[in-house]
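Re: the multi-chain job from yesterday

Posting the exact lines I submitted so nobody has to dig through the queue logs.
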Amino acid sequence: MWPRISTPSGIVEGLAGWPPPVLDPAGPYAGSVAALSWALIALAAGIFLIVLAALWIALRGRERLRARLGGERAIWIGGVVFPVVVLTALLIWGLTLTRNLSEPAGGPELRMRVSGEMWWWRVSYLDGNGRAFMQDANELHIPVGRTIAIELVSPDVIHSFWVPQLSGKLDMVPGRRNLIRIQADRPGTYAGICAEYCGGPHALMGFLVVAHAPDDYARWLAARRAPRAAPPDRQSARGAALFVSAGCAACHRIAGTPANGQAGPDLTHVGSRRTLGAGILPNNRGTMIGWIGNSQAIKPGNRMPPYTVLPGEDLQALAAYLEAQR
Amino acid sequence: MNASRTSGAVPPAASVSETGFDPTLFDRFPTSGERPEGELGELEHVWRAPRGWGLLTVVNNNYVGIFYVGAAFLFFLLAGILALVMRVQLALPLNGVLPQETYNQFFTMHGTVMMFLFAVPAVEALGVLLLPQMLAARDLPFPRLSAYAFWAYLVGGLAFFASIFVGLAPNGGWFMYPPLTSTAYSPGINADFWLLGIGFIEISAIAGAIEIIVGVLKTRAPGMSLDKMPIFAWAMLVFAGMIIIAFPAVIFGTLALELERALNWPFFDPTRGGDPLLWQHLFWFFGHPEVYIIFLPAAGLVSMMVAALSRTPLVGYRLVVLALVATAFISFGVWAHHMFAVGMPRLSVGFFSAASMAVSVPAGIQVFAWIATLSVGRPRYQTPTLFLVGGLVTFVLGGLTGVMVAMVPFDWQVHDSYFIVAHLHYVLIGGMVFPMFAGFYYWTPMMSRRPLSERLGKWVFWLMFAGMQVTFLPMHLTGFMGMPRRVYTYLPGRDWEITNMISTVGAFMLAAGILIFLVDLIRNFRFAAEGNAGNVYGGGTLEWLPTGLYSTRSIPLVTSREPLWDRPGLSREVEEGRYFLPGSATGNRETIITSPLRAEPQYLQIMPGPSVWPLLSAIFTAGFFLLLTVQAYLVGVVSGLVAIWCMIRWLWETDRPVRPPTADIGAGIEVPTYVTGPSTHGWWAMVVLQIVIGMIFLMAAFSYLYLYGVHTSFWTAPPAPSWLALLLPLYGAGMGLAWLARVLLARRRSTLWSPATALLFGAASLLTGFVLDCLSWRWSGLDPEASGQGATVYGLLAIQGFVTGVAVLIALYVAARNSRGLVTRPRNNSFDLAVLFLIYTGAQGVLGAALVRLFPGAV
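And the result, structure tokens for all chains:
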């Protein structure tokens, strides 16, 4: 139904702006809102045309028509009765939908926690007791057809969690815990972005939601939980050592290694991520080297210091090591 | 104290009169016979404006109004230039025109300047400029206050804007959400510029609002009962009423955030019992009514112009007035629709959704009233008409998207996306900017020798209108495409560059239109209070009477809504001095004070002339705030003290009775020239001021209760209600002594000093109460830095301390006047107002002390 307006050249799959994600839902929580959106657009366009017609009559219309518009009766009908009827109907629809959207869709829910931090996303996968069993960053993996209940928190300033194809947005307010539900009905990669101004590089605070078919999700989860191998080659082994000695480990954690920093994104699975820098760069050796070397040139103001002092081979080794963290 | 008693007329039945004034006296107008020679000359002499540098001391509304409009327009241009640069930055993905930090400052300044330095001052300025003319008052009731409000705004606004040239402009968004704007995440003084700069400009807005309320209610031409008032006056009355209710919320908010930043009081810090959402409630309780504060006066202008250009009275006048008032009421119930995405309880979401939709009903009434008026009349297709129709179309579209975003699930999608950017610009440009430009074209002939050019005007309109649509229509789609607001750049490959490029092109079209307007202005605008181009568009309201700096030669008796249409000879009769006050009755600047409902003459107000003190007060008040911002505390405090001294000098020469005690305001109607008590303009202004302060107090009390509800566990300090046994009598004694002072003043047998002494003891009692109130919390160990309870309790005390300080100052001032024999007996205005203020101070002290000691705990 959507005409193609340009060749998808998104640096990352899923980051397209066309078709407009708000009107191109991929799950029930966004779907009902998209339906509402279309209805509202049609209604607004209709009323707008009626007002334009009235205005036309007032300015250029025939005497008889103008006479009918020119009195208090027209004001009562156009300004009071008509809006009250339309608005009441809309309000009932809106409030019903609001209730439905804030309730579980049925079936067992998966639980996650996403913490918006300046300027990235800390992602935790929660078990039935609400305890985190797996950490990640800037990417959420979900199974298709399941409702995911996500706790939204923030340790610093207010952020807002928005994946237009899966749901409306909800803020992450320090000191509060909000709950949003999302669900994808078809596999794919869905772009998310911070929608509340949070200072500095707020513009560059994106993330991805990757929806897998149920079997793929199970395989993905199993792979994530499999024991981790040692660095596969000499270069990555050197990278592993550098990761600690150059100071990376002070802020970043890699499970199963001494690196246990909590300030920055968890890098245990960084090699498998689709993006770097919170949804702004495709993830490959080159971008990884560029990011480590001087992330400030790419995303000014982010909390990671530039490592321009590291020689090229060190950056290569670090990138190789991180690439292997899948 | 009323006219009929002094004129010796028989008091008529109470049902037809509000004040006991005999309406049959109105039958004496227009008078006949020659006016004495030299009368007009004296009027001109009394009202002449100072020349050269002396123009800085001018207080007449013609001058101050034009300066005011000009300054507001300057800020419109400046904020518009910021927007253009931002549009250039966003034309291409990852563009490098503006670095991140600069962009963040630019969008913060664009929003802040447009809202606080352009929109509100612009409509206030139009009020200062147009209201006295429309009401046929000689001037607004407090000309020096207008001058002060203007200078404070200009000096403060320019200094605030200059922060962008040194990279110190605020960068937290015009909404300044903490914690982003708290010291932890905004350590620089950028945020302080916003808090102190805007806090200061709010004071100017409130001064203007007081002026407008009293002006509209007390200085209308005789006979102009409320139902004959021009719609613009209604709109300004509602506007000013909304300001005094809404602005206190943001004043308290900025105070609290500044206290958090400067003194570490955790109003908004959730780790110590504050809550970031408290700011959002305070800010939007102001912020949404703000939108209607901007829109309603513009809607008032539209109602005036639509009627005049259609050459027929406004259809549905009463409905439109009702709509204005209804908008004001409903607008205070919609603030949380800016917070649908913060995770509110479903019940509140439903309430705010319903209210947000309901507010579109009064807007619809006005839109259809305009359409109906256009249908009845034969509108002329001149530039103002184009702007009116273009504004109407634009506003309707913005209103419709407004209904869309009032639907909560839809808002969850588009909130903080470019859809909202589109929506708000449609509403504000269609609802305020286009009507304002219509007004520029329509009212320029009132104060310029030449009208603006119709030919250029059509270019201005079509470029602005097309530019507006090209800029903002695609933004709806940009929002649907997932682009959030307040982003300094975006990634390539998301197709956002297509709509963004279109928007940028449109922005330049819009700017081109405004540029041509400037050309038109330079070519044709020549300020002239007399000898202006006159009633080019054939309006029927009083501002089109022939005027000088003294306003109209004589003040007409108003018997209908469009007097100029209904009485073709009115202009000539007014010019011949056949109505009220054809000259200067006492040799001073003066205007007739009338009753609020029926506009019956009550007394003659003696008005102050040019003075340097409002200017100096404004400069040093601005100095106080700005020097505090840059942390030059000592110089700042000195500047503040100088400001207070300037204000006292300014006040010192006011409130002096003149000779004779009564004056003939035309046709032998004698009214007093010095009146005291509740019918005076000063009394009304004081009551309005007390509502403002009371609202600030209420906001602090709300914050206290709100934080208790959110973080009860932080409420640790004992409330110690027993202290009330000491505090309440002290505050009560302060109020009682103040009242006693007024009684003593009226008693013939009391000495010269006894009333002033009672007043001083009253102030001392209030001060003692306040000091003990503070000490009791100090001794209880409550630490303002430790918890939300500490912050809000001391926040309430801070307000009480400020009010007490002013009360002491006022008492000293009145005592000083008394010592110089400037306090008249049995009644005196300065004295009355001091008493009122002291009683208010005591009442607020009682409420504050009781609230924090009885709740929670005793209740």
